[in-house]
Design the sequence.
C-alpha cells in the first residue's frame, strides 16, 4: 500500500497542522450467513492535529464501522477490511504487525464510546481502570498509577476526584461515567481521539457539559478529534469540518459553516430541512422519503437516488450522469467543498 | 364515538393557558407515584420511596397536543404509564371526561383503555416478534370486539396499514422485516385501530433516524387532523416537542416546573431549569452558533429517592436563596403570562430569534 | 434514548442489510387470508429437512412400539434357549442373542414400547409442570413467585434418582411404567420451570406486553398470545434432550432395583444387563444404545426445527 495522493483529499481546516490520521479508500464488509453487507465502501479523509472532523450519518451509514476499523476493534468474523489504508503519522496501520498496531492504538489513537456503562468493567474501581492505562503501556507502579488517575479525574472535572477514585462505575451517573471514559482515553496523551456518539446516551444539559470538556481538552492537548454523531446540532457547535456519510460512503465534505449553510448534496439538504427548529415553531416538516438503504443490496448508481427528489434517470439525465446507473464520485464542487452528486452545482445553485 | 361527556371539569381548567379551544378530555390533578424501595428477598421491607411522579397537574383538551419535556429520570415516562392505567397512582387523580380513572373497574376501565392508547419509544421492543403485522394491528379488536365486526377485519387492517404509509400487502410479515421507522408506523396503526380519543406518545421518534423522524411527526400531525385525536407528546427533544405541541409542560424531578404555549415556554422561559435546558440544546444553523445564552448547569440531577427540600431544582440553581430550601414554589403565573414554579421567576430569552431557513 | 435502544440501533446498523430486505420488497399479494404464527410455523416446518428426518425416525419408533410383532421378524422375545446365550449377530438373528439366549432383535423391538412410553410420558409431565409452574411464578411474581420458587428449590435439593427411589419404594403409585414415568418427572421438572420462569420474567417487562395490557387484554390473553410464544423456545430444546436422559434414567432405577423389573422389557433394562458383559458380548449394549440414541436424535431434530419455526427471525 502506498501513501495516498494528498492533493485529492479535503481542503485543510482552519488552523490545521500536519495530518495525523489519514483514511484512504477504506472498505469494510460483513460476511454473514445471509449474504455480504457492504458497511463501508471507500471512505477517505484526513485529520490534522488540533482539528475536529465530524462524521455525520444515520444508523447503517457505516460511520461507526469505519471508526472501529481504525481502532482495530471490528468483530471479525464477520467483519473484514477488504481494502484501503489507515495511516497514522504516515505509517499504514493495516500493513503492520499486530504488535505494532497495539502500540499505536491507545497511546496514538484512542476512542470513547456511547455506552460508558458497558465500556467500564463493573468489578474494578474507576481509579484502577484509569491507572491500568499507565500500568499496561508504561509499566507505572500501582501507587503512581493511582496518583495519575486522580489527576486525570480532576482534569475531566469529576468533583472530589481524590475521594471518588476508589468508587465503582455503578456509583457514578451517566455523565460522570462518560468523563471516566474520557479520562481513560486521554490518559496517554493520544494524538487522535475518536468519539463515537459520545453524548447520545446523555441528557442535553449533561451533553453540553461533556462537549465543553472535550473541546477544552482538545485545545489544551492539540489532539485531533473525530466526532461520530447523528446529531446535526452537535456537529454545528463542535466541529470544524464535516463529512456526511450515506450507505457506507462520504457524500459530502467541507467546513461545517459551508455545508450546513448551503448543502451541495441532496441528502445533506434533506437532513437539514427535515429537522424541526428550536427557535421557531415552523411549518410542516419536509422529510426525506423512503427508508435508509439495505446494505446488502445498495441501489445502483447513486445510493441515494431512490429517495432523492432531484434524481435524473434515463432520458432526463446528462450523458454519463444517470443517477440510477452512474456512481457519482466524491468530487470538488466549489473550492473547499466536495460532494458525491452528479448535479451538485444545481443543488448549490452555482 | 361518544362526543358527549361530563362537562363539569371544563370550568376548572378554564384558568389555564390554551390555544386550542376544545372540551377538556383529560385532567390530571396533583398526581403522585411513589415506588417503594425494598430490601430482602423472602421478607421484603420498605426502606424508602422513589418519588417518580410527585405532584403533576396537566390538562388535555380535544384535538390538542400537549408536550411534556424533561430529562431522563424526571418521571415523564411514569406519567405516561399512569395515564394508560399501567400503573396505579399513589395519590391524586386522573379525570377522563370527568371520571376518575383510578376508581374505574371492569367495563369502564376497558372502555377507557380503548379510548386512550399509547405509542412506545422503542420500535424494536414494542412489537411482539412472533406475531404478524396483521395480528398486531388487529389485536385490539380481539379484546374490544365491538369496535370492528369480525368479518372484514383483514380489510380494515390493510386500510390502516395503508393509512400509516405501509404497503397493505405486508399484513403477513413479521416485525423484524421492517426498519425502525416502519415499525413505529405499525405501532401507530395498532393504536389507531381502536379509534381512540387520546394517544399518549412516549418518545415516539427518539429512537428513529433523523430523516425518518420527520416522516413520523408529519404522520402524527395528519392523523390528528383526520381523526380529531388529542396527543400527550412526551419527549426529551425540545425541538420536536415545540414543533408538534400546542402547549408545553417542562418536568424536573417528578413535578412540572413551567407550563405554557410553545411560544411562552420557548421564547420567554421564566424557570431557571427551562432556561438551562433550552440553552443546552445544540442548534444546527451555523448562523445561530454562539448566539445562545450559555447556561452550563453544574452537577447531576439529584436522586428521586431523596429529593432536595423546598424547590427541587435549588441544588443546581444559580438563583437559589434560603427561601428555596424551605418553601416549595407553586406552579402559578408570576407575572410572566404563564405558570412557573420558581420563587424568582423572570422571563429570559435564551434561544436566539429565528433567522429563517 | 436508553442504552438498550442504542444497542439495538447499533445492531441494526450491522444487520441493516441482512434482515430488512426493504430496498427491493418482494410484494406477496395477500390472498384474503391472515397468517398466524402457527400457520407460518407449519409452513416453515414443512420445508425443513431436519424436521422430516426427525419425524420419520420418530414415526418408525412409534410404529415399532405399537406393533412390535411386525418388526421382530417372527421371533418371540420370551422364547429363549440358554444354548444360544450371548451369540453374536448373524444373518438369521440380526442382533444376536442375550445372556438368556433370547432373540435380541425381538427384545429390543419389544422394549421400544416401555422405553418410549416412559420417556414421552415423563417428558410431557416435565413440560406441563415446568411451563405451568414457571409461567405462573414468573408472570404473577411477588408472593406466588416466592412460594413456587422455594418449592422448586426443595425438589432441587433432593437428588433426582434418590427422589424417584423414595417414591417408587413407598409403593403409593405402584411400580409400573406410569409409576416410573411419574417418579422420574416429579424430580426432573425443576430446570424446565427455571427456564420458563426466567424467560417469562424477561419477556413480561417488554413494551409489547405493556401495549397489550394498556389495550385491556386479559392476563390469560397476554400469557398465551404474548408471553408464552416468546418464552417456550429454550424449554422446548431442553425437553427434547431430556427425553434421552429420562429413558436412560429408567435403567438406573432398574439397576437399583426400583424401576421396571423382569420380565418387563425395556432398553434401560437391556443396557443395564449388558453392561456387565461388555467385554464378552458388546452387542448387548450396542444395539439398545443405538436405538436409544436414534430416538433421542429424532426428538432433538424435531425440537430444533420447531424452535426455529416458531421464531420468525430465524426463517428465511
Sequence:
Amino acid at each position: 500500500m502506498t501513501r495516498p495522493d494528498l492533493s485529492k483529499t479535503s481542503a485543510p481546516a482552519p488552523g490545521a497542522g500536519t495530518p495525523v490520521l489519514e483514511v484512504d479508500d477504506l472498505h469494510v464488509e460483513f460476511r454473514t450467513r445471509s449474504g455480504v453487507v457492504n458497511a463501508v465502501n471507500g471512505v477517505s479523509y484526513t485529520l490534522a492535529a488540533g482539528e475536529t472532523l465530524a462524521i455525520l450519518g444515520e444508523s447503517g451509514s457505516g460511520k461507526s464501522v469505519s471508526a472501529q476499523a481504525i481502532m482495530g476493534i471490528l468483530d471479525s468474523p464477520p467483519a473484514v477490511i477488504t481494502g484501503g489504508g489507515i495511516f497514522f503519522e504516515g505509517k499504514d496501520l493495516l500493513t503492520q504487525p499486530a504488535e505494532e498496531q497495539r502500540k499505536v492504538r491507545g497511546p496514538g489513537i484512542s476512542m470513547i464510546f456511547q455506552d460508558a456503562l458497558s465500556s467500564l468493567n463493573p468489578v474494578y474501581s474507576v481509579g484502577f481502570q484509569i491507572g491500568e492505562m499507565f500500568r499496561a503501556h508504561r509499566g507505572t507502579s500501582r501507587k503512581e498509577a493511582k496518583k495519575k488517575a486522580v489527576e486525570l479525574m480532576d482534569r475531566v472535572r469529576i468533583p472530589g476526584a481524590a475521594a471518588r477514585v476508589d468508587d465503582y462505575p455503578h456509583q457514578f451517573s451517566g455523565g460522570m461515567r462518560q468523563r471516566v471514559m474520557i479520562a481513560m482515553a486521554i490518559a496517554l496523551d493520544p494524538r487522535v481521539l475518536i468519539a463515537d456518539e459520545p453524548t447520545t446516551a446523555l441528557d442535553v444539559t449533561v451533553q453540553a457539559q461533556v462537549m465543553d470538556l472535550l473541546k477544552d481538552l482538545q485545545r489544551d492537548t492539540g489532539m485531533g478529534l473525530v466526532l461520530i454523531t447523528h446529531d446535526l446540532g452537535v456537529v454545528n457547535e463542535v466541529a470544524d469540518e464535516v463529512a456526511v456519510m450515506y450507505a457506507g460512503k462520504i457524500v459530502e465534505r467541507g467546513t461545517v459553516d459551508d455545508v450546513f449553510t448551503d448543502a451541495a448534496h441532496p441528502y445533506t439538504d434533506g437532513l437539514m430541512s427535515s429537522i424541526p427548529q428550536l427557535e421557531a415553531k415552523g411549518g410542516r416538516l419536509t422529510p426525506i422519503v423512503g427508508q435508509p438503504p439495505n446494505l446488502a443490496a445498495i441501489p445502483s448508481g447513486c445510493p441515494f437516488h431512490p429517495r432523492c427528489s432531484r434524481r435524473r434517470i434515463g432520458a432526463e439525465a446528462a450523458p454519463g450522469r444517470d443517477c440510477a446507473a452512474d456512481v457519482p464520485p466524491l468530487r470538488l464542487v466549489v473550492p473547499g467543498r466536495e460532494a458525491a452528486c452528479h448535479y451538485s452545482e444545481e443543488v448549490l445553485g452555482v | 364515538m361518544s362526543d358527549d361527556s361530563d362537562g363539569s371539569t371544563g370550568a376548572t381548567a378554564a384558568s389555564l393557558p390554551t390555544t386550542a379551544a376544545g372540551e377538556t378530555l383529560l385532567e390530571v390533578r396533583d398526581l403522585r407515584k411513589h415506588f417503594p424501595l425494598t430490601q430482602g428477598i423472602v421478607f421484603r421491607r420498605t426502606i424508602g420511596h422513589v418519588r417518580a411522579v410527585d405532584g403533576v397537574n396537566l390538562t388535555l383538551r380535544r384535538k390538542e397536543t400537549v408536550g411534556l419535556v424533561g430529562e431522563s429520570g424526571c418521571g415523564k415516562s411514569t406519567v405516561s404509564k399512569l395515564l394508560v392505567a399501567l400503573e396505579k397512582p399513589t395519590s391524586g387523580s386522573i379525570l377522563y371526561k370527568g371520571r376518575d380513572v383510578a376508581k374505574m373497574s371492569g367495563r369502564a376501565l376497558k372502555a377507557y383503555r380503548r379510548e386512550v392508547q399509547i405509542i412506545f419509544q422503542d420500535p424494536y421492543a414494542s412489537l411482539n416478534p412472533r406475531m404478524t403485522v396483521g395480528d398486531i394491528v388487529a389485536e385490539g379488536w380481539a379484546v374490544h370486539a365491538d369496535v370492528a365486526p369480525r368479518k372484514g377485519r383483514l380489510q380494515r387492517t390493510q386500510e390502516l396499514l395503508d393509512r400509516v404509509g405501509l404497503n397493505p400487502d405486508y399484513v403477513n410479515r413479521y416485525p423484524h422485516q421492517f426498519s425502525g421507522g416502519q415499525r413505529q408506523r405499525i405501532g401507530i396503526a395498532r393504536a389507531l385501530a381502536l379509534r381512540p380519543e387520546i394517544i399518549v406518545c412516549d418518545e415516539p421518534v427518539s429512537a428513529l433516524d433523523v430523516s425518518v423522524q420527520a416522516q413520523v411527526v408529519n404522520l402524527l400531525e395528519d392523523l390528528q387532523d383526520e381523526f380529531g385525536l388529542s396527543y400527550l407528546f412526551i419527549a426529551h427533544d425540545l425541538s420536536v416537542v415545540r414543533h408538534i405541541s400546542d402547549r408545553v409542560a417542562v418536568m424536573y424531578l417528578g413535578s412540572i416546573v413551567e407550563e405554557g404555549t410553545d411560544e411562552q415556554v420557548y421564547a420567554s422561559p421564566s424557570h431557571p431549569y427551562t432556561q438551562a435546558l433550552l440553552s443546552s440544546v445544540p442548534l444546527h444553523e451555523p448562523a445561530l452558533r454562539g448566539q445562545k445564552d450559555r447556561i452550563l448547569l453544574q452537577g447531576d440531577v439529584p436522586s428521586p429517592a431523596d429529593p432536595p427540600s423546598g424547590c427541587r431544582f435549588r441544588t443546581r440553581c444559580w438563583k437559589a436563596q434560603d427561601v428555596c430550601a424551605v418553601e416549595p414554589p407553586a406552579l402559578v403565573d408570576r407575572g410572566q403570562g404563564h405558570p412557573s414554579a420558581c420563587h424568582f421567576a423572570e422571563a429570559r430569552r435564551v434561544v436566539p430569534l429565528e433567522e429563517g431557513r | 434514548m436508553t442504552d438498550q435502544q442504542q444497542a439495538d440501533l447499533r445492531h441494526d446498523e450491522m444487520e441493516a442489510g441482512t434482515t430488512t430486505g426493504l430496498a427491493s420488497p418482494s410484494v406477496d399479494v395477500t390472498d384474503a387470508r391472515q397468517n398466524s404464527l402457527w400457520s407460518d410455523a407449519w409452513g416453515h416446518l414443512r420445508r425443513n429437512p431436519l424436521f422430516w428426518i426427525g419425524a420419520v425416525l420418530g414415526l418408525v419408533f412409534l410404529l415399532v412400539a405399537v406393533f412390535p410383532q411386525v418388526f421382530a421378524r417372527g421371533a418371540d422375545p420370551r422364547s429363549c434357549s440358554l444354548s444360544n446365550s450371548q451369540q453374536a449377530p448373524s444373518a438369521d438373528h440380526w442382533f444376536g442373542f442375550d445372556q438368556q439366549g433370547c432373540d435380541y432383535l425381538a427384545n429390543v423391538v419389544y422394549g421400544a414400547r416401555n422405553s418410549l412410553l416412559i420417556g414421552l410420558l415423563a417428558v410431557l409431565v416435565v413440560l406441563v409442570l415446568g411451563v405451568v409452574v414457571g409461567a405462573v411464578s414468573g408472570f404473577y411474581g411477588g408472593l406466588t413467585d416466592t412460594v413456587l420458587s422455594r418449592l422448586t428449590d426443595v425438589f432441587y435439593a433432593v437428588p433426582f434418582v434418590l427422589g424417584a427411589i423414595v417414591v417408587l419404594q413407598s409403593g403409593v403409585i405402584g411400580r409400573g411404567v406410569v409409576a416410573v414415568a411419574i417418579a422420574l418427572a416429579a424430580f426432573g421438572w425443576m430446570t424446565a420451570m427455571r427456564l420458563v420462569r426466567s424467560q417469562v420474567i424477561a419477556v413480561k417487562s417488554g413494551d409489547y406486553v405493556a401495549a397489550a395490557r394498556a389495550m385491556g387484554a386479559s392476563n390469560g390473553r397476554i400469557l398465551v398470545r404474548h408471553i408464552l410464544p416468546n418464552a417456550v423456545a429454550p424449554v422446548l430444546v431442553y425437553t427434547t434432550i431430556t427425553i434421552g436422559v429420562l429413558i436412560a434414567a429408567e435403567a438406573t432405577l432398574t439397576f437399583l432395583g426400583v424401576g421396571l423389573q423382569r420380565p418387563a422389557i425395556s432398553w434401560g433394562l437391556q443396557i443395564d444387563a449388558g453392561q456387565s458383559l461388555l467385554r464378552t458380548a458388546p452387542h448387548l449394549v450396542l444395539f439398545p444404545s443405538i436405538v436409544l440414541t436414534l430416538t433421542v436424535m429424532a426428538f432433538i431434530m424435531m425440537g430444533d426445527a420447531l424452535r426455529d419455526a416458531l421464531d420468525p427471525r430465524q426463517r428465511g
